[in-house]
Amino acid sequence: MKAKTVDKIATSVIIAIAALIVLVLAGLLGYILVRGLGHVSFHFLTSAPETIRKGGGIGPQLFNSIFLLVLTMIITIPIGLGAGIYMSEYAPSNKLTNAIRLVVEVLSSVPSIIVGLFGLLVLVNLFGFGFSLFSGALALTVFNLPLMVRITEQGLKGVPREQKEASLALGLSKWKTITSVMLPIAMPVILTGTILAAGRVFGEAAALLFTAGMSSPRLDFSDWNPLSPFSPLNPFRPAETLAVHIWKINSEGLAPDAGEIAAGASAVLVITVLLFNFAARWLGRYMYRKFTAIK
Predict the structure, then answer these.
(1) Residue 144 is assigned to a structural domain of this protein
(2) Stretch 71-95: mean pLDDT, rounded?
(3) What is the pLDDT of residues 19-43, one digit of tens each?
(4) 170 Cβ partners below 8 Å, 6+ apart?
(5) Share of the chain above pLDDT 70, in %
């Protein structure tokens, strides 16, 4: 068989596989959006769930999901960046470092239900944080930290060696080289890892069942005291997220319009994840142009 023929066959197979993946993704998103958007309204997005009559919404669950995302990223990003920088630039190349990398890779493949049970035993019971947003954020940090560490390390190692050596030759310190030269170049890769970690926070349910809980107190959105048990800003209150709410309302079936609520909540969850990804990518390009002076 001639080389050109093999090339055409291989190209056709790759294009067909790519098209199949796109069609499956488009079909899945289209099914969720078409089925759920008809049930989405302002009242649906802002009201609390109702189990006695129709008309319930997902307001508290949507707020809980966004609040949990913020808490998790506040904990995950600094630790993940610091650990990735250390592993890439400061850690010596020896058996201990290789063992740490292996542990990180193994930890990234641990099922989320195991992370949830760990959170239940250690965070909820041993440390006494109880079923709360804080417990859920710590559990998701354990879940997402390996991804952030590996992505940061790979992003920094992908920086051209010449740029790093040129910075050091100009007299800049190692830390200044990392923060002013290497991190801006690696920012798109690091931001991709951050987006993946954040997406897992939005869609995670198994780990949160055992840490954040499956119910929320009736929130008072006029009370912004973070120490109040009914304040939406209290990180130590139980919180049912949107993904947990979708699972719960389908499994219990107490609401007469459970199917409609689940369909609408699924559509909102998908749209939120898509908007977050688009916004994060735009921010990444903006930061890259700003740090590297590329217009």
Answers:
(1) yes
(2) 89
(3) 999 999 999 989 998 888 888 888 8
(4) none
(5) 93
pLDDT above 70: residue 158? yes
- What Cα–Cα distance (Å) separates residue 295 from each residue in 181, 225, 288, 289? 17, 43, 10, 6
Q: Please tell me the predicted confidence (pLDDT) of residue 150.
A: 87
CA gap 218, 229 in Å, rounded? 10
CB within 8 A of 226, min separation 6: which ones? Answer: 233, 234, 235
Output phi, psi for 193, to 5 deg: -65, -40
Q: Which of 97, 98, 291, 92 is nearest to 178 (CA)?
A: 291
46 located within any domain: yes
> Which amino acid would we find at residue 250?
N
Please check whether residue 78 lies inside any domain of the structure. yes
Asked if 227 contacts 256 with a C-beta cutoff of 8 angstroms, the reply is no
Residue 161 placed within a domain: yes
Number of domains the chain contains: 1
Both tokens assigned to 194: 């951050």
pLDDT, mean of residues 260-288: 81
The predicted model scores a pTM of 0.83
Overall residue count recorded for the chain in this entry: 295
Assigned token pair, 85: 């920088």
Domain extent, residue 97, equals 40-292
